[in-house]
Amino acid sequence: MAEEAFVMRAHRLLAPRIAYLIGTSTPEGGPNLIPVSNVTSVSTDPQHVAVAVFKKWDTFRAMMTSSGFTLSVPVSSQLDAVWKLGAKYSHFPAGSTEEKLRASGIDWDLERSGYGPVVPSGIGWMSCRTIARIDLAGDHVTFVGEVQAAWFNPKFLHSDGTPVASVHPVMQQTGNRFTTAGHEMWTMDYFRE
Question: Which of 7, 24, 75, 91 holds its CA 20 to 30 A away from the CA of 157?
Answer without folding.
Answer: 24
